[in-house]
Amino acid sequence: RKPSPSTALHRPPPPSTVPAPAVSTATEISLIGLRVSEAEPLLVKALDDAILADLPYLRVVHGKGTGALRQFVHEILSADPRVKRFGFAAPNQGGAGVTVVEFRA
Fold first, then answer.
1. How far apart are CA 69 and CA 34, in angstroms?
2. CB atoms within 10 A of CB 82
3. Element (H or E) spanning 85, and its range?
4. Model-level pTM?
5. Which residues form the domain of 86?
6. Number of domains in the chain
7. Which is it for strands 57-61 and 28-30: parallel, antiparallel or unpaired?
8. Would residue 84 count as lying in a domain?
9. CA dist list (Å): 61 to 39, 67, 76, 100
C-alpha cells in the first residue's frame, strides 16, 4: 500500500556532488582551407580554451597557401597579451604551415 501524501516522508534532495567535467582541450587547431572570416572565431575559441586549460602551448595549423591566413593568425597573436611568443614549427613538424604559440605563465 502506498503511503498517503500527508504521511509520506518529505526529504530535501541530497546536495549536488557532481564533479565539474574535466576540460579536454586540444593542443592543436587546424584552420586549413578556411577563409579568415571563418577562421577567426575558431582561433579565438582555441586560444581561450588553451588558456583556461592552462596549456603551455597551442599549435595552429594554417597551411602555406597564399599566406593570408598565416598573416591573420600572426596579427591576432601579436595583439593578444596572453601570448608570450610564437613562431613557425620545426621543418619536420609543419614548418611555415604551422605556428606554435607559447602562453605566458
1. 8
2. 12
3. strand 83-88
4. 0.76
5. 28-57+66-91
6. 1
7. parallel
8. yes
9. 11, 12, 14, 9
